[in-house]
Amino acid sequence: MIIRKARKLKPGDKVGVVSPSEPIVFRNKFKSSIRELEEMGLEVVLGENVFKEYRGYSAGTVEERIKDLNTMIKDRQVKAIFTSLGGFTSNQLLPLINYSAIRKNPKIIIGYSDISVLLNAIYVKTKLITFHGPTLEFGIPHWKKFTRDHFEKALFESGPIGKIKAFKVLKSGKATGRLIGGNLSVLRTLWGTKFSPKWRDTIFFWEDENITFEDLEHFLAHLKLVGALEKMRGMVIGKLKNIYKFKSKRRKANTVEQIILEATKNYNFPIIMNVDFGHFPKQITIPIGAKATIDTSKNLFSIDEAGVVD
Question: What range(s) does the LD-carboxypeptidase C-terminal domain occupy (predicted)?
Fold first, then answer.
């Protein structure tokens, strides 16, 4: 299998910013992020429609959003594409992305939340390593040294990312595989489509926010139905935000851990959780498509491959 990698970023590089999903809410945070990127020596160019708003929940029409994305993809001077924030409508763009141009001109593409849809679809269609990491409105404006250090290591250095510290072991074991994943709620819109990941020999990482325990059971059952649980080699769970318990007089409230263990009880892959990614300021940058290892006997989770080249 041919894996494509973009060139690492360096001062002086031109990078583009697009809004593929939700409209920008906090322009002050957005502008603060632009300054952060400029302080790294990057030249930032904005998509023509980056500040558009359509129906209150999309950053412009489908035509406007895909125009910006494909323009950045085709521009050989643009070395990376950053996204403003997540939302709900990235999947509308999938049939319209210029995948051929991505294969011919690989570049860094980064974001999280609803942007997970784009990142995984692009990896599936082109085998370009994409990056689950900070967006301009949520991530970069809040970042501390931890988040910035991981961001720079993933995008500005061509060595393996290495060990990821601090996590909880939910199920013991050892696994090696290629990383795929992102936000669980939106990723399920890919499953069963031509943009769905090839699950065999993968380590699936996921996070979520504002869902109920019933939602979580539903999503994990969907993973089983599409054959993902029997093919993946490991599972990495990020920081979960606002996961609401179901409570009634007739049913005791479970825990997230109990739900995950019950859903995966017939599978032997290792599961770790509370890794630093998700809808929180502290987050690592994860290269989708890179090789990784879990070995709970050594308290090890490592990203063994760089997502970029010199």
Answer: 176-294
Nearest to 131 by CA among 277, 245, 21, 310: 277
Q: Where in the chain is the domain with CATH 3.50.30.60?
A: 162-309
Catalytic residues: 113, 207, 279
Sole residue written with tokens 């997540």: 86
| Contact by Cβ (8 Å): 63, 33 | no
Angle at 290 between CA 235 and CA 282, to 5 degrees: 65
pLDDT for 145 equals 92
CA distance 178 to 174: 14
Fold (CATH) for 6-156: Rossmann fold (3.40.50)
Q: What is the pTM of this model?
A: 0.96
Token digits for 168?
Answer: 């909880």
The dihedral sign for the CA sequence 13, 136, 97, 121: positive
pLDDT at 81: 99
Report d(CA 75, CA 24) in Å as an integer: 23
Residue appearing with tokens 């049939």: 95
The conformation of residue 257, written as its DSSP 8-state character, comes to H
Q: Which residue ranges of the chain lie beneath pLDDT 70?
A: 246-253
The CATH architecture annotation of domain 162-309 reads 3-Layer(bba) Sandwich (3.50)
Q: Which tokens is 268 given?
A: 């032997």
Cα angle for residues 214, 218, 223 (degrees, 5° grid)? 150
Burial code (b: 16+ CB inside 10 Å, e: under 16) for 209-233 equals bebebebbbebbeebeebebbebbb
The three-state secondary structure class of 210 is strand
